[in-house]
Design brief:
By secondary structure, the chain is an alpha/beta fold. 42% of the residues lie in helices and 16% in strands. It has one domain: Rossmann fold, CATH 3.40.50.1820.
Length: 288
């Protein structure tokens, strides 16, 4: 699916005076699955697994504030807590009281905040289960790329406007599995969505999430180790950022952790090997 088609099928809603884009598919009486994308991309990341998921779930896939087709205010104090609150507002707008989560990368961190808020305040929508894809669940096991560190630093606001598609493509190819390199169409789509609404300038502001992971470790890590709800990690082990090393660390911290390694896959399992991700999701939910 081309990004323009994805956009045409989407909706927008104002949350705290900011426009959020989201895709919505209603599957009558089916459970709701909230799809949370990663950095620096958008809800379009889910297009290769959307149809399979849509047969079994009501789907909600937002673009976080500052990403994709959502509003990209600048300057702005982006935070994970704010993104989580935005997701809760979106769920309330649609009328969802209980839901499951499938998350990737940045979306994992938002999910950890959603889980922390749910444990603190039972009046918010109920999380029934979580599936994580690659992402920095444990800040000590998150190995950001050099360019991410630079963009998150003091010279980031000066470097971000100079980013080119060629350099971006090189960075993306370095985090995909060698057997599943991103296509030219993938790169074009990712890049166009980053550039939408002058998005490049927001990247240094959004990258603060890496520091937030460290600051909130004691709030965000314990809930995923207690497993009061079912949790699965589907991991692309070829990912240099949050691959096999992170999955193995999870099982060290919690020997009973449900971790599925998709051999040969890198940082974007849902783009690289969507059929294998779908099979792992289907097994988790015991779907026919």
């Amino acid at each position: 699916m081309h990004p323009d088609n994805w956009k045409t099928l989407g909706n927008t809603v104002l949350i705290n005076a900011q426009k959020w884009f989201y895709r919505y598919h209603c599957n009558s009486e089916a459970p709701t699955l909230l799809l949370l994308h990663g950095f620096p991309t958008s809800s379009y990341d889910w297009h290769k697994v959307w149809d399979d998921l849509a047969e079994h779930f009501t789907l909600i896939a937002p673009d976080f504030l500052g990403f994709g087709w959502s509003q990209k205010p600048y300057p702005y104090n982006y935070s994970i807590k704010q993104q989580a609150k935005g997701c809760q507002k979106l769920l309330e707008h649609i009328g969802v009281s209980t839901y499951h989560i499938l998350a990737h990368d940045y979306g994992n961190t938002v999910t950890q905040e959603l889980l922390a808020q749910f444990e603190e305040d039972p009046s918010v929508p109920t999380i029934e289960s979580i599936i994580f894809l690659n992402g920095g669940l444990f800040p000590e096991m998150h190995y950001p790329r050099a360019i991410q560190k630079i963009l998150a630093g003091p010279i980031g606001p000066f470097i971000a406007p100079l980013m080119t598609k060629k350099r971006f493509a090189k960075s993306m190819r370095n985090i995909f599995g060698p057997a599943y390199p991103p296509s030219s169409a993938d790169i074009d789509a990712f890049w166009s969505l980053i550039k939408t609404n002058q998005g490049k300038r927001c990247i240094p502001l959004l990258l603060r999430y890496m520091q937030e992971r460290k600051e909130n470790r004691e709030r965000w890590v314990p809930p995923i180790l207690t497993n009061r709800i079912p949790i699965r990690l589907i991991n692309g082990p070829e990912d240099p950022i949050s691959g096999r090393h992170l999955g193995e660390y999870y099982t060290q911290l919690k020997p009973s952790a449900d971790v599925i390694f998709l051999e040969g896959v890198g940082h974007y399992p849902q783009i690289e090997a969507p059929d294998r991700v779908w099979q792992a999701v289907k097994a988790f939910f015991s779907l026919p």
